[in-house]
Amino acid sequence: MQDGLDYAKPCKCREKQILQNKYRFAEMPEQLKDLKLRDYKTDIYESGSNKTLSSQAKKIAVNYVKAFEQMQEKSTGLYFYSNTKGSGKSRLAVGIGNALIDTYGTRVKFTTTTKLLDEIKHTYGGYDIEGMNTSQYLEAIKTVQVLILDDIGTERITGWVNETFYEIINQRMLSKLVTIYTSNCEIDELKHDDRIKSRIKGMVFPVKCPEEDIRTKLRQSDNVEIEKLLLR
Length: 232
Ligand SMILES: Nc1ncnc2c1ncn2[C@@H]1O[C@H](COP(=O)(O)OP(=O)(O)OP(=O)(O)O)[C@@H](O)[C@H]1O
Ligand SMILES: [Mg+2]
Known about the structure:
CATH architecture: 3-Layer(aba) Sandwich
CATH topology: Rossmann fold
Shape: globular
Low-confidence stretches: none
Number of helices: 9
CATH superfamily: P-loop containing nucleotide triphosphate hydrolases
Order of helices and strands: HHHEHEHHEHEHEH
Strand content: 5-15%
CATH class: Alpha Beta
Bound molecules: adenosine-5'-triphosphate, magnesium ion
Largest sheet: 5 strands, parallel
Distance between the termini: 68 Å
Strand order of the largest sheet: 2-3-4-1-5
């Protein structure tokens, strides 16, 4: 009681529960889900140009989180791209998603384009996704505060795929909601309809990522340890 008024303060365990629910909803990939932006390494890349690209990409990711309110006002997402697999694109996107949940309690949803399309098809068969039918699931994807669309460009493009993406991306654009993409190619190189590419271009700041496979590099250094265990 203060000034004759009652103030309701949420208890810590309820706040924790809300945060846990947000993480569950976000569905970050298992391998990357606990990773923080601060742990993204920039000195792990061999060449000077990749070190520079990774430093820039990290700086952009950190500042994006800091300036998130302005980014939302300007409906600005990010588009992380590089030709090389395993170079850290998804890691950066997940790092941003985790930071937004932790800092602002943002509602974030992570999905790969292939998984998204598979799940939509799954609902056509009368099955639900987390209790949602087709229109409810599409509505959730169209209206989530931040959508992380991982690996755009890997899916096989058909008329249906173009229609589905157009519906989602156009609705998110009209609602001024931000989307964060990762891809193995530049926006212009995507095989999607021009109306989709034009909308993506209009809604993101493109971020060139390093061209170096850190996934294989980490595997090789793990294998040195594993060799010691297996050949002892
Ligand atoms: N800069 C980095 N610092 C630490 N770990 C990294 C870095 N870049 C990548 N990794 C690790 O390497 C693995 C592959 O990274 P990630 O999945 O982000 O690559 P990607 O660019 O999205 O690859 P793909 O094009 O195949 O989707 C992950 O385990 C990730 O944590
Ligand atoms: Mg990836």
